[in-house]
Specification:
With 580 residues, this protein is α+β, with helices and mostly antiparallel strands. It has three domains: 5-164, BirA Bifunctional Protein, domain 2; 193-278, no CATH class; 305-566, no CATH class. The protein contains 22 helices and nine strands. Strands 1, 2, 3, 4, 5 and 6 form a six-stranded antiparallel sheet that branches. A three-stranded antiparallel sheet has the order 7-8-9. Helix 12 packs parallel to helix 14 and helix 15 packs antiparallel against helix 16.
C-alpha cells in the first residue's frame, strides 16, 4: 500500500485476529509484534509482557460484547490496518500511537474525552504499518455509529500525512472502485492466487463491456468468460442488477462468492452499463474515411483484417485525443470511457510479450476513465466501434504488418493517455491524472517492445536512401517539423521518417503536404519523439504498409532521384516486368 491508507473491515472472531496480529504471519513476515497504543494505555501486551497472553487480551476487549449476552452483535470486531509509503521515513512507536488515536477518533470508535468509547488496540508487527483492532460495543451498551467510518478515516489520514511530513496521497472524489478487503487479500495469499478475485472479476466484466452492442450480448460474454452470473429480477420480470462469481472462489460453506457489478466499480453497475450501451456503436471505420481527399490516396489498406481493425482504431484514438484537448467536458469524458474499451481489447488480444504491460495500462486507465463529469450525451460510438471491430477480427502478433499497426495504435494511445492526464490535472482530478500518467508509462513499455523491429527496418532503409532522395526528405522534415530539428536530427526515428516520406512520395503523394496534414492532426508537445509519432501518422494517412521490409530500396524509391514520381500503377507494372 502507498501512503497512509486505512483499510477497514468487520469480523466476528476476536481471538482469531489477535492470533494473526501476534503470530509469525503467512510467510514469517511479522517481526516483534507489540502494542503501540490502546483505549486506556493499560491493555495487556502478549508481545512485550511475558505475563500476558492472547486469551487475557481477548477477554478485556470482549468484556462489553459478552455483557450483552444474546444481544451481542454478530460482527463485533472492527479491523483497520494503516500502512505508510515505502519511501517515507520510519515512524516511531509514539507517532504510530498518535496515528491510531486520531484514526479511531475520526472513525467513531473512541472520540477524545468519551468515557464510553469502544475498546481498541493498535499492534505493530512491521516497521511500516500498524493494525488497529476494536470491539464495537460502547460502555453504555450501544453499538458505535460507524456509518461513513471509512471515508472519515481516509480524510483524517490525509491530514496526518501533512502534519507528519509524509508523502501525501492524491485526494479522491469517491469515483474509485472499491479496493479488495484485507480478508480478500489474505484469502488470495492462502490459496496461492496472484491477486484477490475482486480485481480479476473487475477486469473480466470490463472486458465484457468493451465494444458490446447490447445487454444480451454483455451477459452472453460474461457466461462465455466462464463466470457465474446471477440476475436480480424485479416484480415486472425486468433485470434490475447482476452479480458475478469466479467458479473456483467459494466461501466456507462451499458456495460461490458473488460480487454485484456496482461493488466491482461504480461504472459497472447495470444502469451505468445500459447508459453506455444506449448510444450504440458507429459502423467501424466511419470516423476515419476521407473519400476524395488526395492526401489519403485510394489504395486498399494493407494487412489482415485484424491489422486493418487496429489501423482504424488508431485513427479513432487520434480523433478522441483531439476531442479531449479541444472538445467540451462532456465530450472529453465520453472519449475517456470509450478509450478504455480499446485498451481492454488490445490487452485481451495482445501476444504474451506485451500482455502484462497492456493489462496494467488498462487497469490504470480504468481509474482515469471515471470522474464526476457527466458524459451521458457524449458520442463515443467511434472508439467503441473500433474496440468492437478489434475484438471480432481476432488475434494479431507482434511481427510484420500486425506488429507495425500495433505500434501505430500504441503510439496513438500514449498521446491519448498524456492528453487525459493533462485534462484531469486542469480539473484537479488528482487520482485520475496520476492513473492516466501511469497508463502512459505502461503503454510506452509495450510500444518499445512492439515498435523495435519495424522502426529499425525503416531506419535502416532511411540511412540507405539514395543521396538526392534523402536530402529531399530531410529538407521536408526540417521545414515542417522545426521542433524536431534540434533534438532528433540524425537519430533513428528521423531516419525512419525520411524512409516513410520517400515511400509515400514513390506512391504518388506530396511529402510536404502529407507531413503538414499529419502534423496538423493535433499538437505534439507531449510526444517523446515527434518524428516517431509522425512515422505512424503518415503511414496511416498514406495507407502505407506498417511494417516495410528491411531492404533500403522500397517500391519506387530507387527509381527516382529527381523529378516527379511515376504513378503507382506504372510502378506496379515496372515491378512486375523486373520480376520477369
Amino acid at each position: 500500500m502507498d501512503q497512509l491508507v486505512p483499510d477497514i473491515s468487520r469480523g466476528s472472531k476476536t481471538y482469531g485476529l489477535l492470533a494473526y496480529l501476534y503470530g509469525p504471519g503467512k510467510h514469517d513476515e511479522h517481526f516483534d509484534p507489540h502494542l503501540v497504543a490502546s483505549w486506556d494505555g493499560f491493555a495487556p501486551d502478549p508481545g512485550r509482557d511475558p505475563t500476558a497472553n492472547l486469551k487475557q487480551l481477548e477477554q478485556v476487549l470482549d468484556l462489553r460484547v459478552n455483557q450483552l449476552g444474546p444481544r451481542r452483535p454478530k460482527k463485533h470486531v472492527w479491523h483497520c490496518p494503516v500502512s505508510a509509503d515505502p519511501d517515507d521515513r520510519l515512524l516511531t512507536d509514539e507517532e504510530w500511537a498518535e496515528v491510531a488515536r486520531r484514526v479511531v477518533a475520526a472513525a467513531g470508535i473512541a472520540e477524545p474525552g468519551d468515557p464510553d468509547g469502544c475498546r481498541w488496540i493498535a499492534v505493530r508487527h512491521d516497521p511500516r504499518h500498524i493494525h488497529i483492532m476494536a470491539t464495537v460495543v460502547r460502555g453504555d451498551g450501544r453499538q458505535a455509529r460507524l456509518n461513513g467510518d471509512a471515508q472519515r478515516a481516509q480524510d483524517e489520514c490525509r491530514q496526518i500525512e501533512k502534519d507528519l511530513g509524509l508523502k501525501q496521497l492524491n485526494p479522491g472524489d469517491k469515483t474509485a472502485a472499491k479496493r479488495p478487503t484485507s480478508a480478500e487479500t489474505h484469502k488470495a495469499e492462502r490459496l496461492g492466487r496472484p491477486e484477490p478475485v475482486r480485481l480479476q472479476l473487475r477486469d473480466q466484466v470490463r472486458r465484457a463491456v468493451a465494444g458490446c452492442a447490447s445487454e444480451a450480448e454483455f451477459f452472453d460474454r460474461l457466461a462465455a468468460a466462464g463466470l457465474l452470473v446471477q440476475r436480480r429480477i424485479g416484480p415486472s420480470g425486468d433485470t434490475l442488477g447482476y452479480s458475478v462469481a469466479d467458479p473456483d472462489d467459494r466461501n466456507g460453506k462451499g458456495d460461490p462468492v458473488y460480487f454485484p457489478g456496482s461493488k466491482l466499480a461504480p461504472d459497472l453497475s447495470l444502469p451505468r452499463i445500459r447508459k453506455r450501451l444506449s448510444g450504440g456503436v458507429r459502423a467501424a471505420g466511419a470516423s476515419t474515411a476521407e473519400p476524395g481527399d488526395p492526401a489519403t490516396g485510394t489504395a486498399r489498406v494493407p494487412g489482415s483484417k485484424a491489422a486493418r481493425a487496429r489501423r482504424d482504431a488508431a485513427a479513432a484514438v487520434d480523433d478522441a485525443t483531439r476531442t479531449i484537448e479541444e472538445g467540451s467536458e462532456e465530450d472529453a469524458a465520453g472519449q475517456l470511457v470509450g478509450a478504455i474499451e480499446i485498451i481492454d481489447v488490445l490487452a485481451v488480444r495482445a501476444p504474451v510479450d506485451t500482455r502484462a504491460q497492456l493489462i496494467a495500462a488498462a487497469r490504470a486507465f480504468e481509474r482515469a476513465s471515471r470522474s464526476h463529469v457527466r458524459a451521458e450525451r457524449a458520442d463515443n460510438r467511434a472508439v467503441r466501434a473500433a474496440a468492437r471491430e478489434m475484438l471480432s477480427s481476432g488475434y494479431t502478433g507482434n511481427r510484420g504488418e500486425d506488429g507495425g499497426v500495433t505500434a501505430m495504435l500504441l503510439s496513438a494511445l500514449i498521446l491519448l493517455a498524456i492528453a487525459s492526464a493533462r485534462w484531469h490535472s486542469a480539473r484537479s482530478h488528482a487520482q485520475q491524472a496520476a492513473a492516466a500518467s501511469a497508463a502512459a508509462e505502461q503503454l510506452r513499455a509495450a510500444y518499445a517492445t512492439v515498435a523495435a523491429r519495424p522502426m529499425a527496418a525503416m531506419a535502416a532503409r532511411g540511412r540507405s536512401l539514395p543521396s538526392p532522395v534523402r536530402e529531399r526528405q530531410d529538407a521536408v522534415i526540417r521545414a515542417k517539423l522545426p521542433e524536431a530539428v534540434a533534438g532528433e536530427h540524425g537519430g533513428s526515428d528521423w531516419d525512419a521518417l525520411a524512409a516513410t516520406l520517400a515511400e509515400a512520395e514513390a506512391a504518388g503523394h506530396d511529402p510536404a503536404a502529407l507531413l503538414e496534414k499529419a502534423r496538423n492532426r493535433r499538437e505534439l508537445d507531449t510526444a517523446d519523439s515527434v518524428t516517431a509519432v509522425m512515422v505512424w501518422r503518415v503511414r496511416r494517412i498514406a495507407k502505407l504498409s506498417a511494417a516495410p521490409s528491411a531492404s533500403p530500396e522500397g517500391p519506387g524509391v530507387r527509381a527516382r532521384t529527381d523529378g516527379p514520381a511515376a504513378p503507382a500503377s506504372v510502378q506496379g507494372r515496372q515491378a512486375r516486368n523486373s520480376r520477369r
